[in-house]
Amino acid sequence: MTPSSRLRRAVSATLATVTVATGLATVTTGSASAEQLHTPAQCTAALSAATAGQPIPAVASYRGPRSLITPDRQLRIAVSGDNPRPGALTQSIADWNRALAGRVTLRQVAPGEEADVTVLNLPGSVGDFVGRASASRRSIEIHLGALSDRDARMALNHETGHMLGLDDTGCVGTLMHGYSDQQSVVPTPLDVAAVVQGRY
């Protein structure tokens, strides 16, 4: 991977823009690179392998530059400030815990407790992005109040995927696809395999 492609991937993992059309929000990664990361054939092969419990080819291409999973295989999540969608965060943590099946455990911690990631609700309507994750700042910023429960859950699941070490992909139907209208709401076998393969 060239330095410029690594930079493009790092940027696409931290940026999100939004297009609002007919009342539906479509999240993009801020670049057209998601479709270029994986061909349909690569996605099909990876999803088939993951579904069969086999190693996925080129797993590093599905991973971002950094994971915040602790050495004891946890990801502790705190909320800073107002959370108008507490059910979405609870469901997101449950979605990832169900998918990871004990190999990594996510849990919400109270404000002031040690956390690996802090979720910050951004007030007001959606502007340049719905949600964005920054491993270096250990934060997820999201417009929770501007989203439906379903969209908040999907956005939290997607941004949490970045904190678990995943990058955006071009694989339609996965949680980590770069466009929300082509994403799963919950982690798919391919998303999970990219987190755990060779690690947990």
UniProtKB/TrEMBL annotation:
<feature type="signal peptide">
    <location>
        <begin position="1"/>
        <end position="34"/>
    </location>
</feature>
<dbReference type="InterPro" id="IPR024079">
    <property type="entry name" value="MetalloPept_cat_dom_sf"/>
</dbReference>
<keyword id="KW-0732">Signal</keyword>
<dbReference type="GO" id="GO:0008237">
    <property type="term" value="F:metallopeptidase activity"/>
</dbReference>
<protein>
    <recommendedName>
        <fullName>Peptidase M10 metallopeptidase domain-containing protein</fullName>
    </recommendedName>
</protein>
